[in-house]
Every structure is written in C-alpha cells, then in structure tokens.
Write a structure and sequence with these properties.
single chain; mainly beta; 1 helix; five-stranded mixed sheet; five-stranded antiparallel sheet; about 400 residues; 30 strands; disordered N terminus; globular
Length: about 400
C-alpha cells in the first residue's frame, strides 16, 4: 500500500513539476554558428551572441548557465544579456552524460563556488560531477569525478566542501574543493536518505555550513544532517508542513529556510513554508503553509538581501513573490499569487548578484526568460532566449569579473 501511494505521488509530481512529455524529448540541435535573427525585440534564437564576454559592463555583467542534459552528451550552455536580448553565448562539453528523465524534477544541478571562480555540474547519466573554471571568456574544463552514487541531481557548496545528492542510490556523498577547483572525494563518506524511493529534490547547506538539508517529495519529509569537519551525521527526519516539499533556499546570513509545497500538483493548492534551522538537527516551522493559490510551486530563489522569495508555479505558468520579515515569516507579496506570467512549465530559477534580474527556465517553451526586479518584488519581462533543449536542467547566474 505504501509503495503504491509513493509511486502515485511521484508520477503526479513528475507531471506537475516537469510538464507532461518533457522528459525524454529529443534535445534541440545546438550550433556555434550564426542563426536566425531575433524573433522579436525581446527574444533571440539559440545562436552565438558574438561579442567578446569581457565587453560586458554594469548590471549586464552576468552570465546565465544551464545544462543541455542530453543522454548522449552533456554540455554547459551560457547566455548573456546584450542589445536588449538574452542571447546564447557558448557551450562547454562536460565529457559526461545527462539524463533527460530528471529534467523538471530537481533543483540545484549547477553550483557556483569560490566567489564566482568555479562552476560544478551534475552528469546524471554517467554518475559524475564536472568542474569548470569561470573566466572572462567562458568556462575552462578542470576535471570530472565519480559522484559516489547513482544519478547525481543536486549540489551543495560551502567554502571548500561540496556535497552531492545521488537520487538513484538514495544517498549523499561529500568532496573537498581544492584551490584549483578540483574535487577530492572524502573517503568512505556516504550517508543515506530516509529510505529508498524518497524522490529527493534538492540538497543545500545552511548559512553556517554545519547543517545539510534534503527535501523528499514522495515521503513529505525534510532530512537534516549535522556536519562536523566535513563529515555528516544523520539523517534526522522531519515531517514537512505541507505535501510534496520540493525546492528551497536559505535566507542569506541566517538559519531560515523557505520551502515550496507542491501538493502533488493539485490545482490551486500551492503554498510555501518557512523553517528555523538550529544546528545540529532541529527544524522548526515559522510560517506553515502560506498559500499562493497557484499550481505546483517547485523552485525557490531568495534575493541576496534576504527580503524576497520567488517561486515558480510550474502548473500555472506563473511566478509568485513572498516577502520575508526579520523573523522568517512569509507574506504573499504578489496580487492573487502572481507576480509574472512565464513561458510554459517554468522550472529552475536564478537571480543576479545585484538582485536586479530574475531568470526563469521554462521547459515546454524551451526558453530562459529574464525579468527585471522592481520595488516589492514587482517583475517586468525584459528579454527571452529561445531554442533550449527540452532536457535542459539547472540554472545559475554568475558575474565572472567580480
């Protein structure tokens, strides 16, 4: 009976947070040659931007990254704002393989570390993690290493520690990051989730680096691990405030985490919850189930000032905005739960370091949309990049010159 329930929840969530028919679809062909002209003033096909990266200045000094996540080859794809459009810039082969079946089911497939010096990416199809150095002219491949489990889907970084969530083996594994961006496996370090078939969505560190958090979609649990000297102990398993806890983000410089509650993709049932994390293993609700009246809220990002959380409602094709007060309490800031309409099935989110731009990966539309962030979290669509692979996975934004 329990297995049947978990399987039903997992299937429902896969449809809700990835879009029916998206996983497994053939990726679009990528080209480094000039292609069709812009489709409109604020859109651009997936073709090279052309201008040198180093010419970017001001708030446009941001590069947006996603993964092609193709079953036969995995690439990091970069995009830059230029000339009023978000344009495809370059692609960088990881040397590993992607897994289209995980597109739209996890958060955190790309991690930026070392003050924007390094990028790490999962190779979910070959059970590896790839490392790159971020430079003014693009990415430089460093190394690729086994993930210490099966089907790596999410990465967590704190200083010189990197942990990976291996969905296929229901486990986490740890690595040290060298000063050159190499990953070195912490020997014999692997810890289980609450059980097999948990449907994990994301792993992340708290702000102190002493607690790891994992959300489990199928069990409605949130796992915490106490971390000392790079070694995790746990998990301590906590019941989530809502159903289908999915993506989450920590409020910067605090021990407060905001989690999306997808409720299995039930129409209009979406919500968000906030929790206080007290090391080593206490998770206490602050705001339990603040509804946004949308469908399948899944991905979460928080502004660097810690005042706003943006959540993509995958089943409603919308973004919701929540205000976060000093105690971590949530208040819906967007009228009727909608601060922006997006492309079809919005998924991964990223935010620029200056909190001026929000980027949204929409799976069925195969686009990355860029939105300017105004007062109170008001979003205005600025530019769109078209032609992404249907298997695209993860989203991150970095300013290479910082």
């Amino acid at each position: 009976m329990r297995f049947t329930l978990l399987l039903t929840l997992a299937v429902a969530l896969l449809s809700a947070c990835s879009g029916s028919g998206v996983p497994g679809s053939p990726p679009a062909t990528l080209s480094d040659q000039s292609g069709p002209p812009a489709l409109s003033a604020n859109s651009q096909s997936l073709t090279r931007a052309g201008a040198p990266r180093a010419q970017q200045t001001g708030p446009d000094r941001v590069v947006v990254y996603t993964l092609s996540n193709g079953a036969s080859r995995n690439k990091v794809l970069s995009f830059v704002p230029r000339g009023g459009a978000l344009k495809y810039d370059q692609s960088f082969d990881t040397g590993g393989l992607g897994d289209p079946s995980v597109a739209g089911t996890v958060q955190g497939a790309i991690a930026i570390a070392g003050d924007n010096r390094f990028l790490f990416a999962v190779d979910a199809g070959s059970n590896e993690i790839s490392s790159f150095r971020i430079g003014d002219d693009g990415l430089e491949f460093i190394d690729r290493i086994a993930s210490g489990g099966m089907q790596p889907v999410s990465l967590a970084v704190h200083h010189d520690l990197l942990f990976v969530l291996n969905e296929g083996s229901s486990s986490i594994a740890g690595f040290r990051i060298t000063r050159n961006g190499l990953l070195r496996r912490i020997p014999h370090l692997s810890a289980p989730l609450s059980g097999s078939g948990a449907g994990p969505a994301e792993i992340s560190f708290d702000s102190s680096g002493t607690v790891l958090v994992v959300t489990e979609k199928a069990t409605n649990n949130i796992d915490t691990y106490a971390v000392a000297n790079g070694i995790p102990t746990g998990p301590t398993v906590h019941a989530a405030s809502g159903m289908t806890p999915f993506g989450f983000a920590f409020v910067p410089r605090s021990e407060i985490v905001v989690v999306s509650d997808a409720f299995g993709g039930a129409s209009g049932m979406g919500a968000a919850s906030s929790y206080a994390v007290t090391p080593p293993n206490t998770l206490a609700p602050i705001s339990a189930l603040v509804p946004d009246d949308n469908t399948a809220p899944c991905w979460v990002v928080i502004t660097h000032d810690g005042k706003l959380a943006f959540i993509s409602n995958t089943g409603s094709d919308t973004i919701s905005t929540y205000s976060i007060d000093a105690a971590g309490a949530l208040t819906l800031a967007s009228p009727k739960g909608v601060s922006a309409q997006t492309g079809r099935t919005p998924a991964d989110l990223a935010i620029s370091s200056d909190d001026r731009s929000l980027f949204v990966l929409s799976l069925k539309s195969r686009t990355i949309g860029a939105y300017s962030i105004g007062a109170g979290g008001r979003l205005t669509k600025a530019r769109v990049a078209h032609g992404l692979p249907a298997s695209a996975l993860g989203l991150a934004a970095a300013s290479p010159n910082d």
